[in-house]
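Example 3.2
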Amino acid sequence: MAPRYLKPNVKLEPLFNQWYAWPALIAPATAAMNIANHHLKLMRSYTAAPMVHAATLKNPAMIGGPFINLQGQKVDAVRDLLQRTAGEQAHMIEFAEGVKQLNKLLRDEARGGSLEPLYAKVPDALRGYVELVYDLNHQPSARFIEPLLYQSRYYQPERQTIALSLVEQDERPLVLSTPWIEDGQSLHLQVPFAHEAIDHLFRMRLQAGDVNAVADQLRVPPERRADFDNLFTDEAPPTPSKMTDDGVRVRYFGHACVLFETRHVSILTDAALSYRYPTDMPRYTFDDLPEHIDYIVLTHAHHDHVLYESLLPLRHRTGAIVVPRNAGNMADPSLRLALKHTGFDGRNGGARVIELDELDSIEFTGGRIIGLPFFGEHADLDIRSKMAHFIELEGRRFLCAADSRNIEPRLYQHLRDWLGPIDTVFLGMECEGGPLSWLYGPLLTEPIDRQRDQVRRLNGSDSALGMDLLEKLGARNVYIYAMGMEPWYSHIMGLAYTDQSPQIVESNKLIELCRQRDLSCERLFQQKEMIFPANR
């Protein structure tokens, strides 16, 4: 067979135990909590009353809720997955129960005295993996030795698989609340995320390769070879355009995904990309990326900002993934460890991980990246793996502040005093996010009452907070982004905005406030290219 190219609309769905994988399903401790407190509960509910799930999801407002969204009756398949999970993941369920028991132990017996006698009472599944500590206010907690957990039976790369298929439309069911069930359309392969065959496969997006060789590497079953061969074409992809002029080219790919390019460097934020297929809605896709990306910068570990579906196909053509340092608690696992153990370790010329702390910088020809503090949007939890990014290129100064909430305005005054004015700001305005329990509920070991759950939300800035942030930074150009409005994000966002949605109302208000102050302001949607002349 002659060398062939991978089709531009080949979709890779990353799966863990048949659930769409995001950072909380990579880190061992949070994976255990999600299995026990989210996956099993959802599957039990669905198998007990599938029609309730189907009826509820007819209301678009309920799409993001705890309801399985499967077309047709898949009760037997979900029941089979439920039974297998209960048996094969018994050790993960035991770990999650141990976390619950440990928190009760600390609550009941850690009253300010020595914690040393409590080590003998730590549940067996957790023994040797946790350190018991007080903070300076004598509040007890447990620190997980996360690198060691990755060396234990609680990290399960054998449960990582990929599903390959051709995507031909934007609308996809929300993935967080629904397991992947065999449908005959996708090619499900037992390949862990770190496997180099994934890199070989996606190199064929730009360079023709040997289909037989990559099929062997991926262990494609003989009976599915025809389906696998259908993922390839003789048609060469378009040649990626290069930035050859002075200045900075900025391209908006949707949501929080923005590409900054100069003649010397390319920087992609929160990689979440669409595919090329016939559509009436213009957008940039994988085909519009440069052949090599110097840095992919990740702002925080939420599922709409760290997408393995986009990151794995880009691993072989990326220099480095830049991530924020974490706090080391249950709610805040390490992005560096998750990426390192899923193949972002610099092998074979692929991406390595750079971990930034607040105010750390990366210097390169013609510019730098500085990690800046990111407040809010995490329900008041102690989460440090979140970071806004100051990007300076050819004398132009940009800030990417996806989802940052201006809960302490003095922060931005201090940052301006240190950095000087920042003329172009990309600001997220999902001002009404989900409640604490929506993403972090599986990690809670005690129920939270509805009132507290509703006020501790994953909110970004509204118009008043956003305007204050922009004025303190001295912004002249404002781009509202990270709204998740594009339909090709339906599978990760589950949003259905109307003109009356708070996010639309508040972003409209910000646009008007900016215009009253002679600031350029635009809410980004679908795609946009901006050229900024060098300012040396």
